[in-house]
Design a protein that fits this description.
- This protein is an all-alpha fold.
- 76% of the residues lie in helices and 0% in strands.
- It has eight helices and no strands.
Length: 144
């Protein structure tokens, strides 16, 4: 999908998910609902609305914990406030400790986010340390 049609789908999904909550969402479905709505809202640029919902998903939806945490860290990076950056660093540390459950590509993204967070917190030596954990394949990527 191109960016426009992808955004349209996320917008539609967020509307349906909000409607589901209004109609009465079963408590057992709330974790996956929070993940889907948080991801949809963040994808359409509504980071302020996505933030508390993604936080709920991180805490309650284990299958989406890694992705929800990464989305939340990106939101925190945009805010550039020391308090939320410290929280992003805590989420990141939790993920780095889950190494065996996360594939190499995702782990590289987690360490890249860690480096960005640490740079934003003016901890350049620690950021370089985080970059040392990124695989050679990802390190050679121009964007990295």
């Amino acid at each position: 999908m191109n960016e426009s049609s992808s955004e349209q789908r996320y917008l539609g999904a967020s509307n349906f998910l909000r409607d589901a909550e209004r109609r009465g969402l079963p408590p057992a479905r709330r974790p996956i609902w929070a993940f889907a709505l948080g991801k949809s809202l963040q994808s359409i640029g509504l980071a302020d609305e996505a933030r508390p919902i993604l936080r709920q998903a991180v805490e309650t939806y284990k299958p989406g914990k890694v992705e929800a945490s990464m989305l939340l860290m990106e939101i925190y990076l945009d805010l550039m406030e020391p308090q939320v950056l410290e929280e992003a660093l805590r989420f990141n540390t939790e993920l780095t400790e889950m190494k065996q459950k996360i594939d190499r590509e995702q782990m590289d993204q987690i360490y890249l986010l860690r480096a960005q967070i640490l740079l934003a917190l003016d901890r350049s030596m620690a950021a370089e340390e985080a970059l040392a954990h990124v695989s050679n394949k990802t390190s050679s990527n121009l964007g990295t």
